[in-house]
């Protein structure tokens, strides 16, 4: 299987691009404070999935998936801060929060499969 075939990877790439499209329109101060943190956190979800996927040992893959999950939670915090500071309207906030929940479920399910083969499940 290729990395690009993983649905959790596809979704994490999509949400990061969506967040980028939102943040890029903010003024300098907002980008420099909340924006950079939000973009870095959301980009890190897929980046850690990629790094783990490329590791030789499944334990390393799992570890990077845990980092990815940490970045997912950080992204949740930053979208909440953006909403609280009126940088995101409620509709966009709820859509992003829902998408992040979906990614979280898929990421947890992916983590459960790492290192398992049909013979030892």
Describe this structure in words.
There is one protein chain. The chain has 121 residues and is mainly α. The protein has one domain: 23S rRNA-intervening sequence (de novo design (two linked rop proteins), Up-down Bundle). It is 78% helix and 0% strand. The chain contains four helices and no strands. It has helices at 7-23, 28-53, 58-84, 90-113. Helix 2 (28-53) packs antiparallel against helix 3 (58-84) and helix 3 (58-84) runs antiparallel to helix 4. It is elongated. It starts with 6 loop residues before the first helix and ends in an 8-residue tail after the last helix.
Instruction: Tell me what portion of residues adopts beta-strand conformation.
Output: under 5%
Q: What is the annotated CATH architecture?
A: Up-down Bundle
| CATH-defined superfamily | 23S rRNA-intervening sequence
What name is given to the CATH topology?
de novo design (two linked rop proteins)
Summarize model confidence as the mean pLDDT: 95
Task: Report the biggest beta sheet as strand number plus sense, adding barrel if it closes.
Answer: none
User: Poorly predicted ranges (pLDDT <50, ≥5 residues)?
Assistant: none
- Structural class, by secondary structure, is mainly alpha
What is the strand and helix layout of this fold?
Layout: H1 7-23, H2 28-53, H3 58-84, H4 90-113
Helix pairs in contact: 1-2, 1-4, 2-3, 3-4
């Amino acid at each position: 299987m290729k990395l690009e075939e993983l649905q959790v990877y596809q979704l994490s790439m999509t949400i990061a691009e969506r967040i980028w499209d939102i943040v890029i329109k903010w003024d300098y101060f907002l980008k420099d404070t909340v924006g950079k943190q939000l973009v870095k956190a959301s980009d890190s979800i897929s980046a850690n999935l990629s790094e783990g996927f490329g590791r030789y040992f499944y334990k390393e893959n799992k570890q990077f998936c845990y980092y990815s999950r940490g970045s997912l939670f950080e992204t949740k915090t930053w979208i909440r801060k953006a909403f609280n500071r009126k940088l995101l309207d409620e509709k966009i906030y709820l859509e992003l929060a829902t998408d992040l929940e979906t990614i979280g479920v898929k990421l947890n399910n992916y983590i459960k499969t790492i290192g398992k083969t049909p013979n030892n499940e």
